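Q: I'm teaching a short session on how sequence maps to structure, and I want students to see two examples side by side rather than one. Could you give me a first protein with its sequence written out and its structure tokens following it? Keep the formatting plain so it prints cleanly on a handout.
A: Of course. Example one:
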Amino acid sequence: MKKKIVSVLMAALMTAGMLAGCGGDTTNEPASTDTGKSSETQQAEAPAAPETETPEEAPAAEPVTLNVAYMPNYGSLWSVENAIAQGYFEEEGITINLTEFQDGPTIIAAMESGSIDVGYIGQGAHKLCIGGQATIFALSHISNGDALIGGEGISKVEDLKGKKVAYSSGTSSEDILVNSLTKAGMTMEDIEAVDMDASAIVTAMLSGGVDACATWSPNSLTILDEMPNATKLTDNLTFADQTVSLASWIAMPDYAAENKDVLVRFTRALFKAMDYAATEHQEETAELVAAQVAQDKDTVYQQRGDAEWLTGKEVSEGAADGTVEGYYELQKKNLIDSGAVVFEEGQTEPAVADYVLLDVMVEAGQY
């Protein structure tokens, strides 16, 4: 729901003139009850008009440098690169140091060590946020970049029985694999699951070391492009009627509690960049991302179909009206139902508001 904020400035007018002298002449000088005083004397003795105070400008935000973790793909960098290029971070007094990682759990580990201040995560690592290890302060987009891919001779999920399937545990790779198996009436016990780093999955698949894999863009695009006989068995849209795949920006809980103003400023810059690039400037965005990740622009440009790109205004308004909270509620439910999130005896399920800073998104959207 969009809101208009209308400011009305009102000033009171004071009439300081009264009729004086003869011949019906008027004057702006105040009338005097002492007829022995000249008009010049009366004017000199008239009270001075009150001075108008000049409103003080809001103090500039304290400059801050943030160490920011990202993954080498369009979805991770689309907003942050535009926020840098368009000067939105500069407007907020923020300097950005970017550091590349391959997956969300590794980013969270780096944040726990203190080397990273804020970072981007995909669907899988949200389970760690539900568990209290990190705090979400901004929704980036709704993803469709994950895929389960079968090699030659594998055309449906059921064909994976007894096959070697590469995946990366704790990430969206594991999520889409588990969801795909569940939909087909199978479990991880029905396949030979091979857990490996995300960066190694492409090599394993192209070399024939595994029969299938679960991965995300741009790895999925590379495999499908270089393996003519490969088949995309499922992607996020396969489960659109029952789940949602989210990408978010996170910080450590203590950092978030102590630096809310910094997170609002960072998010405001992101939101302006999302407004800029959600529906336009995607080729320009691909050029920025390609330069950062050392890939060719066309490869990066192909990734623009990996998500529903939300504007910052949409996210902020959704945080205010309950839409965004609903996304995270559905995500939490599915991660619990799939067994990705397990609570120990005595633990209670957290409310979304316990680990998602909806107020930061609302405040950051006021620009």
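Q: Perfect. Now a second example for contrast.
A: Example two:
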Amino acid sequence: MTGSDAPPSFRLGYVPGVTPAKWVRIWNERLPEVPLTLIAVSTAEAADALRGGGAEAGFLRLPIDRTDLSVIPLYTETTVVVVPKDHVVAAVDEVSAEDLADEVVLHPLDDTLAWERRPGRPANERPATTADAVELVAAGVGLLLVPQSLARLHHRRDLTYRPVPDAPESRVALSWREDATTELVEQFIGIVRGRTVNSSRGRPTPPQPKRKRPDPGDARQRTPPTGKSAGKSAGKSAAKSAGKSAGKSPRGGSGGPKGGKAGKRGKPRRRS
């Protein structure tokens, strides 16, 4: 089977902590004939996976090098500190970065937070991954600052976490190659943005011709009166005609007495 004969498909990359299940479900409902394949990628490799054609679109964490990529920021995550359950931090609702100044804070190589100055004291070695760093927290080696979704992803019964409001936050975005904005990519963008299945995706509606409003006077002239209105109109016309006939003599002058008095008659001429 050649590439042109192959059925369409859609590959979606996602980094640890992102849960695309809701969007995948909507895709399967709207485009059941186009299979969607999920591809797990590391935070560091997510952008390169899109540039290399490993996925049509992907969820990744900012900041990234945006060269050749289109990016739509979606949401921002709270940063938390992961600690053993018996640690003093577990007794409070939240902590500041300054509160961790005397603690050993682990800094994994796949860290996603953009720190200007990291809090706490550095460990002797940097763990390779966030998962490795969580194991070291459980062993009592140090603490770990991560986006909340990663703390949930690597949850352990012997660990807990607390928010750190003044720490840098992690932003999750949808991204794809600028030169590969296909119809399927547009479909997925619409799903993520919450467009309905009947959405025109922002296409303007063509203007409709305006209808001329009818003149109310014309309508009255064209429509004959009916019912009571017809009777009233006929009565008025008859009365008006009768009045004109009674008020004028056949010769065109005024006839009939005014005010109940007879009109004056001229004096008879004297016969000589």
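Q: What should students look for in example two?
A: Point them to this: The helical segments are 21-30, 46-51, 130-138, 148-153, 183-192, 216-222, 227-247. Also worth mentioning: Strands lie at 10-14, 36-40, 57-62, 69-77, 79-84, 104-106, 121-122, 143-147, 159-163, 170-177.
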